[in-house]
Amino acid sequence: MLALLRSLSYSWQQGKNFTRWQWLSFSGWVSVVGAITVYLVASRYLPFIQVSEVHSISYLIMAYIGHFGLLPVVFWIGMLPLALILPSRWLLLPISLIVLFGGLFLLAVDTTIYSQYRFHLSGFVWELITAPEASDMFQLSWFTILVIVFVLVGVFIAALGALSMAVWLVKRKLSWWCGITAFSIWIFSLLISQVMHIWYEAHYDAEVTGITRHFPSYYPVTAKTYLLDNGLIDPTQVRQEVDLSVSNKGQSLRYPQNPMQCVTPEKPKNVLVIGIDAMRADVFTPEVTPNLYALTEKPNAQQFMNHHSGGNVTKGGIFSLFFGLPATYWDGFAAAQEGAVWIKQQQAAEYQMGIFGSATLVSPAFDRTVFASIPNLRVTTEGTTPSGKDLQVIKEFEQFLSEKNDEKPFFGFLFMDAAHSYDVPTGYDKFKPQWSRVDHVKLNNDFDPVPYFNRYKNALHFLDQKLGEMLARLEAQGELDNTVVILTSDHGEEFNDLKQNFWGHGSNFTHYQTQVPLLILWPGKSQQKINYKTSHFDLAPTILQEILGCQNPTSDYAVGSNLFDSNAKRDWLLVHSYFNYGVVTDNRIIATYPSGQHEVLDLENKRLPEEKMPADIGFQVLEAISRFYR
Prior knowledge:
Elements: H1 2-15, H2 20-42, H3 54-68, H4 70-85, H5 92-117, H6 123-129, H7 142-171, H8 176-202, H9 206-209, H10 224-229, H11 235-241, E1 270-276, H12 290-293, E2 301-304, E3 307-308, H13 314-323, H14 330-336, H15 341-348, E4 352-357, H16 386-403, E5 410-416, H17 418-421, H18 450-476, E6 483-488, E7 494-495, E8 503-504, H19 511-514, E9 518-521, E10 528-530, E11 534-535, H20 539-546, E12 572-576, E13 581-585, E14 589-592, E15 598-601, H21 615-626
Parallel strand pairs: 1-5, 1-6, 2-10, 3-11, 4-5
Antiparallel strand pairs: 2-9, 6-9, 7-8, 12-13, 13-14, 14-15
Helix pairs in contact: 1-7, 2-4, 2-5, 2-7, 2-8, 3-8, 4-5, 5-7, 16-18
């Protein structure tokens, strides 16, 4: 303690006499020394990262230096104007000490939480661990409390030591070239790590991409679509060169939690999933989709009236549909190139696989997640427009059916893109007036949504016609006699329904962007309309149990329940977006943000400042997003 007081006194006495130029120098040196301290604390993440190749070790070093160096660099940028404008420049000493201590403490807490639960600290998590109910999940013994006290003291000593070292370096009048060299190493590492990630992510390198989830708030750059569009990579060839059978390389997944115990029936049903991108639930009507809606009157039609996706974007929607898991697991599964149990069990049952996506399956990387186990996966479709590609998808699927072995079951996945792209063939204008060309820069809170919405409905009407014709042909050929047909979407689409200037998807977690149609034609089941809430998390358990004969409890591989289990608890739904997620309950939305903050909203996206997050639901969410990590 005496040494601490002496160090603080030394820094104070020396610092208060600094010139403005010396304070500028101090801001730089405290950032450099602070960076070293940050690297030491962040080293606690390294034991969870497994790398063996030279290039992946090199990437880890570059990413480690580049990412964790961002914190002190941001600190330095904030210090510079203070050093220039503060009249009492000695205030930089306590300000620096407080910021350093706070930053190092939060980083130390995050490393501790990650080592125990495999998720990172956020405002959502912080509120839970500081809530009165936290003891139900986080058991704090006296020893743990003592460790926390030691961590606090250690972090304070580290912050004070960094401050004293910076003051000493200023007094030593060390050359600025040392600081410039340190900054150059950081910027070089940052840039090289991003370039390496772009290249190795596009080449399905599990060790490189597997590092991402271990670092807090780490979002490395990807450019697979750009490389693909410019002919710099051939995804089909790359997939053939990579051993996709090696699962969990460099990862710590526990999926499924126990070996699957499945006894497939002697003559299993075929499965056909038709996904219409961006189809919201309330456009599944006789007016907009007459052919598909007519299927609800089939004797075996199962219509789910209150069904929700696990995402308000494509990545979250499709991932949750096939895995039955939140897309918070995306990075871990994509890095490990771990396919969905649903798909792998169908392969084990010798299903013939026909996967046809209008948009590419490499971005989002469904070729590395949902369909990672499928060899020679077809990842692109020929065509110049989304509607043209949709027609090609239908054509190629029907060709697949004509060439298949009738002695074996088949699985088909058709993912249609016209509605998502608002692509309407020339002259297709059933709903008028129709916006002649979608121009997103014109969208604002005063924009009339009717022409825009009409164009969207015209695209859906076009798809309805073509898919209706296809299903009619398949029925006439007898293909549907033993086929479970699933019609749904990945997410909804908003047209300023809330009058809050929200358009499209990925911007909020209200039902406009998350509720989607779900219609299943199931041979052997009687027609019914199901009104209780269901979600995409329920699809995988349903198929695995009722078609593939799997006896495992659903908790072994999913967070959902069988669609037909009306007694299943569905108190909350985790909906994933681009970089964040929302927890949707029957009357509240807890929206998280990439910054780590969260807020409680009503179902119309209006903030409820007095409302608190239900702790019991929060703990259930944390358990769900960490269950399948070791």
